[in-house]
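Hi P.,

Sorry for the delay on this. The queue was packed all week, but I finally got your sequence through. Input first:
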Amino acid sequence: MLLLDDPRWKDLQHAYGEATDIPALLHLLAQSSGPKADYQEELWFGLWSRLCHQGDVYTASYAAVPHIVRIAADATGPIDTSFFLLPTSIEIARQTGRGPHVPQAFAEAYHRAIGLLPDNAFLHRHKAWDRSMLLSIAAAQAVAKGHVDLAESLLDMADEHE
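Then the structure:
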């Protein structure tokens, strides 16, 4: 996993250019992992708009996913649905050609993190799940097992009820 203080973040790209701002956003996320008040909450909005902008992903997206998954695993209280939605959406975009190849330097950590999404769901199984969380978790499990088409369908179902 690319450390947050690694200077290579400047070599990665997100929707608006150089990814040097991503480590600060991930650091803030680690301090505030609870459910967001609304979809435009600045922290998640900033991550989504940079890492999965209109369905496209970037090299920084792949480097950020292991951090997002780790933060969700470490959280002790309820977490936001985006902890499942964003990595799932990034993997769907990758698998459907909406982003570059995963850089070799981050490939192992990225793929391991995607595979850990079901484990995160298990870690949070005792928390209350509304319909949105349930569909997000189901989509994350589907994408982690390689069922991209099913994951997309589950995310479409979540979008229909927002």
